[in-house]
Known about the structure:
It is built from six helices and five strands; from the N terminus they run ββαααβββααα. It has helices at 35-41, 45-48, 63-74, 121-141, 146-158, 163-169, and strands at residues 19-25, 30-33, 79-86, 92-103, 109-117. The two termini are 28 Å apart. The mean pLDDT is 95.
Amino acid sequence: MKPGITPTSVERSLGDQDFIVSKTDAKGRIVYANRIFIDLSGYREAELLGVQHNIIRHPDMPRSVFKLLWDHIAAGQEFIGYVKNMARDGSFYWVLATVTPDRDTRREICGYTSVRRKPRAEAIAAAAGLYREMLAAEGRVGARDAIAAGTAVLEQALNGRRYEQFILAL
């Protein structure tokens, strides 16, 4: 949880035609945020630029999901997943995020672009349930083994499918 921010039960949502767009450097620091992202997050643009993208991470999100995200994008692959974010005032909003690596002229990863859109309510319910199970598993084992425990719950739910197949089927 972010110091000074207490999660609330107030939900914000994207409009059906809205897209959140942000860009980060290779370390995950925000270098661009579109107006929808700024407005929905409740932060001023100056508060977002130069800080880690996890400024909006909601404590309901399992660490193992972000490990999976970083494994994908660091390997040059696109990541698609449902993410619960927390606004500056503690409210939350769900997104279907697509994160892709940006490459420089030498084809090396120099940053990442994330485009997020409004998810379907049924998909949020399924993702939220799975994430609760993953987070509970992470909490039972402590920080050192948390990611492995959450990943084990996810792998069981995937039942041999790739994560993207699972997400897109929700």
